[in-house]
Amino acid sequence: MFKSLVINKDDSQGYHTQVKELNEADLQDGDVLIKVLYSTINYKDALAISGKAPVVRRFPMIPGIDLVGIVEQCGNNKFSVGQHVLLNGYGVGEKYLGGLSQKARINSEFLIPLPKDITPFNAMAIGTAGYTAMLSVIALEKQGITPESGSILVTGATGGVGSFAIRILADLGYSITASTGSNKQAQYLKRLGANEIIDRAELSVEGKPLMKERWAAAIDSVGSTTLVNVCASIKYGGCVAACGLAQGMDFPATVAPFILRGISLLGIDSVMRSQQDRLDAWHRLSQTQVADKISEISTIVGLHDAIATADKLLAGEITGRVVVDVNA
User: Fold this and answer.
1) How far apart are CA 82 and CA 93, in angstroms?
2) 3 state DSSP class of 278
3) What does each C-alpha distance from 130 to 71, 123, 150, 162, 164 come to in angstroms?
């Protein structure tokens, strides 16, 4: 028997989440059995745990879109018993049973080896948020954005993606403007590497189709009106990597920035990225200095604390990343 966080939906209790004891027969089909060491609580996990958005596609469900652990059984020769493996996305925690469990059975095609220069804890402190941030930085680089191009805007700066985007960009020598609704976190953002802090209110209300050119590029995890105003404020020929929708899925924009300033909007999906993209992003992460700031970016909780922590995350009371020690 082992412990898992389980979401269920039934006539007697409605939508509910609790820690339960399961056995291996309760796990889904898959060719790799993993002893999970750590998982995470991302924004999507918090929505799933709370039931505040229709994230879960089947019940019962174990949430957790990230996991790192040790292979106990493998039905092919892709991984060896005792090897550390890593998972981000692929619908795990939504369609497939996820990482907030002491054991998981996963399709080997969803897994990559844990990079040798990253510890299991740091892999989850980075998690989907850091991996998405790196995918976003790589996308900007492919568009020719360099430190010499000018300042890069990062929205949702105190969140997981924003925190890691700032740290990665700073490590690469970029000048960074951080947008946040939490003025008390200004010192935290500056320690990560932000050069300038702006209030998110500047970008969250309706603006003009074209605004003053301020930034060479941006990484946006907010969406909606904020993303519209970000696009309207990018310098000629710049680009925006859009990787989140915390403010909303809508995009009430005009084509003016794209036609009159030639900017590009780059959609960043982390869920179904190719194995090669994943390996490339995690290799880049292993070469950065993000681990130096892990203690500032991450909070660790136990499996029994996951439900309350999810509520705090949705209430904006969590800064950075939440790592879950599923065996604590």
Assistant:
1) 24
2) helix
3) 23, 9, 23, 9, 5
Q: Which amino acid is at 90?
A: Y
**Environment class of 106 (CB within 10 Å of its CB; exposed 0-12, middle 13-18, buried 19+):** buried
Q: Tell me the C-alpha distance between 111 and 68, whole Å.
A: 9
For the chain, domains (ranges, CATH) are 2-114+293-325 (3.90.180.10), 128-267 (3.40.50.720)
Contact at 8 Å (CB) between 38 and 123? yes
| Distance between CA atoms of residues 142 and 268, nearest Å | 13
**Are 174 and 166 a contacting pair, CB within 8 Å?**
no
Strands 152-154 and 84-88: unpaired
Could you count the other beta carbons within 10 Å of the beta carbon of residue 211? 16
- pLDDT tens across the length of the chain (328 residues): 999 999 999 877 889 999 999 999 999 999 999 999 999 999 899 999 999 988 999 999 999 999 999 999 999 989 999 999 999 999 999 999 999 999 999 999 999 999 999 999 999 999 999 999 999 999 999 999 999 999 999 999 988 899 999 999 999 999 999 999 877 789 999 999 999 999 999 999 999 999 999 999 999 999 999 999 999 999 999 999 999 998 999 999 999 999 999 999 999 999 999 999 999 999 999 988 777 777 777 889 999 999 999 999 988 888 778 999 999 8
Token pair of 35 as six digits: 């002893």
Looking only at the bridges linking them, the beta strands covering 321-325 and 2-10 are: unpaired
How is residue 42 written in tokens? 């991302």
